[in-house]
Amino acid sequence: MKLKRIINLSSLFFSLLFLILIFISGCGRKGDPIPIIPPREKSAEKNSGKNDKGSVPAVNKTESEVAKGAQLAPPTGLTAIYTGSSIVITWDEVTGQGVKIYNIYRSSGGEYALIGKTGIPAFTDKNVERDKKYYYKVSTVAGSEGSLSKEIEVLTKPRE
Fold this sequence. Notes:
By secondary structure, the chain is α+β, with helices and mostly antiparallel strands. The protein has helices at 2-26, 63-67, and strands at residues 79-82, 87-90, 101-107, 113-118, 122-125, 133-142, 144-148, 152-155. The protein has 2 domains: 1-30; 32-155, Immunoglobulin-like. β6 and β7 (144-148) form a beta hairpin.
């Protein structure tokens, strides 16, 4: 009886440990989080015509082009954490406007390219390099695409 109880407690402990590890790895939060530089305005010299992927075509959208005919509010409160292997971006959920999707745009100093879509106010960019600056903007989609959010800048750390 006593041995059975120990085995049950042991099974429970390892099950909980397994679930915690799955949760942590599923969030993409491996390594030490690094605080991110607050958002800043994009300067004119960044529009060099080259995107961060070289030959991959970029989505060249300005805020006015995206916002034509759209009354959707842009996401606010963008924050990001560099995990050592990816960048996790979160923002405040846009409510009351029928938002179904958020589009995530990234730049490395040139044009912004659409890198992903999500239905929740969070996105993990796993295609990042060390010792590089990335700039992100997010837009809302509810039938048509709304305005782009303010830019957030992320600097990845070099290998130690």
